[in-house]
Amino acid sequence: xxxxxxxxxxxxxxxxxxxxxxxxxxxxxxxxxxxxxxxxxxxxxxxxxxxxxxxxxxxxxxxxxxxxxxxxxxxxxxxxxxxxxxxxxxxxxxxxxxxxxxxxxxxxxxxxxxxxxxxxxxxxxxxxxxxxxxxxxxxxxxxxxxxxxxxxxxxxxxxxxxxxxxxxxxxxxxxxxxxxxxxxxxxxxxxxxxxxxxxxxxxxxxxxxxxxxxxxxxxxxxxxxxxx
Length: 228
Prior knowledge:
The chain has 228 residues and is α+β, with helices and mostly antiparallel strands. The chain has helices at residues 2-20, 181-185, 187-197, 204-227, and strands at residues 26-30, 41-42, 50-56, 62-69, 73-82, 93-98, 115-119, 128-132, 137-149, 153-160, 167-173. It is built from four helices and eleven strands.
């Protein structure tokens, strides 16, 4: 009986993992203001798929993420803006900052000793509209690039806006999907927070899905403990 329960719950876990993988990026932070090097959201290993969702309030309109690398490597990056009517005219620029990059003049303060490179971004009207199926949210992709980080050390990816209106944006980095128990157990909260960031309101379909996955994770833990 215990083995049968474990098999059933195991199948539920596999379905849960398949659903979680649809996120494509593991959320590091959802919401909040990361408006300088000291306040930067810290990423994990550079190859792991991760995303930071940040607010860009007028007057403090910058979003910083930090990544530490042991040596020269490439960083895959995506810049997005929630698809909201009030942000249709919003424009965000972005750059990579770090050691052994060329000196660069930017309209933001660059930490001493770091160079940088400006990354191409596009206006919202020229950008691709993408749909994230698990959270049922939409974003405009305003930039995609692979940056070469020439040496080990701390690098920053920073996005900023000169707009006088409050805005928001997200930066995703890395490509390798790494999922764990916390991703499954916390899926319901992740969906709710991501939808709140995109100002999408409550969607009962996804609330029900997140509850089911949450219960599946709890049931598996109980089943495994029962087998010990």
